[in-house]
Amino acid sequence: MFSEYCAQPFTVEPVTVQYEENGSIVSSYVTPTLSTRREKASVDFCNSLIGIQITPQEMKALCDKVQLGPAALLENNTVLEVTVPPTRSDILHPVDIAEDIGVAFGFNNIRKRVPTTSTVGGEFPLNMLGDLLREEIGRAGYIEVLTHGLCSIHDNFTALRRQVSPAVSLSNPANVEYQVVRTTLLPGLLKTLQHNKAASFGSGFKLFEISDVVLPDDKHVITETIVGAKNARRICAVYAGPTSGFEIIHGLVDRIMTLTEVAPTDDYVALNERTKEEQHRVSREGWVYSVEALPDSHPESPTYFPGRAAAIMFQTPKTEKKCIGTFGILHPEVLGNFGIQYPASSVELDLEALM
């Protein structure tokens, strides 16, 4: 303890911290705060997390042993309530209580058991699909980028000419650039273009990213808990150059669908005059897509130039026809918001729908 080196060993001197504004004290508090607090943890949760099976009374005794006492049992001995001293600022969650119980029990005393299941490790299918697409999109001349998962409300909504909608937000962001968790990958790619103005755009500048966005969701349940949000894997690509490059982005959409074995609808094939090519296409039975004009009512429509945007419609034998992404020529106002001096087109679609 450092207090043994004080003028009066093992003593604590309180300090009053005062906040002044316009020459007057607006608030103050005394530190350190030496009061105790009470925290709760489920008995079953602690046993399950540690991998032991002890009685609530034994668990209570272990808490007293590691200075988390006096402890008490509540709700018919199903909930453990401990007393956290002022010196234990690390106790923030029931997991911390379970950890101290494990220390008091002794990790060496936990019986080693053979798992009841036998599994073979492997790459998560969604990650495997993403890795394969990264290689193929890279071969098409696109440069992969990895952008930050946090952004400002302005970049995520206003700069894209979209209405501000619910998003996972930070209660105490470090600065304005980290207000919300992104709901779209597009701002990151546009800011990458913004910071690479010295690069050559003569033959076109192609960027792409395959990563997660976080969407509010009150129905997504994990471990019997409503998280309130869920991750969604997206593909986003941008082309900027002397021309808008709409046909280049359109070609990338068709290439992604070909790689994921999704066939175009008969009407879409007839429209593109590629009937002979489709005879040799490898596709999953009943998995089809088409490209339709993006309606003005779509929330992403303001991002694109009027009349130069499309929706990617997708359908399987088990799902109805739905929009899984959009692409088009970016609106000049959007380009101006990010300081991009060349016309550009972009695409963003849901990768998980193609699994």
UniProtKB/TrEMBL annotation:
| Gene Ontology CC terms, in alphabetical order | phenylalanine-tRNA ligase complex
Q: Which residues form the B5 domain?
A: 34-112
- What protein name is recorded for this chain? phenylalanine--tRNA ligase
Q: Which GO terms describe its molecular function?
A: ATP binding; magnesium ion binding; phenylalanine-tRNA ligase activity; RNA binding
GO biological process terms, alphabetically, are: phenylalanyl-tRNA aminoacylation
- What PROSITE patterns has UniProt attached to this entry? B5 (PS51483)
Asked whether the keyword ATP-binding is assigned, the reply is yes
Cofactor(s) needed by this chain: Mg(2+)
